[in-house]
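User: Okay, second chain of the day. Same drill as before: sequence in, structure tokens out.
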Amino acid sequence: MSDGIKLRSARMSDADILLSWKNDLETREASHGSDEVSRDDHIKWLSKTLENPSRKLLIAEEYDVPVGTVRADFADGAWELSWTTSPNSRGRKVAKRMVKQLAGKISEPIRAEIKPTNLASINVAEHAGMVFEKEMDGIAHYSRL
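Assistant: Same drill. Structure tokens below.
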């Protein structure tokens, strides 16, 4: 069940919206890297991401409007998930719906690394079936085996 959210593969034409979400102050404060990203650096990153077979970058749409993004990186037998909700879509459980939908399509283990102060993302990870494993170097590690 999609729960009103449709996931599609990201493309280069999504560059501007992805950059605006990445550089949003609240997003940067919740991210591991909190520096603002330049357009040139973002275009290089997106180009490499779209060519990487071990990385899936998906755009979540609700009624054909982009509302967030979820990324899955495969390494060491597991998919590491990370996500961002568009600033205009916060407070509507978009992240819970898109991450749970993607997690439901993955049979391998999944994991996420979250700042312990990011309670919203902790709730998203738990909603997707992940459980707290440990905290290391100021990062909480969640997984579903």
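The chain has one domain: 6-107.

User: Thanks, on to the next one.
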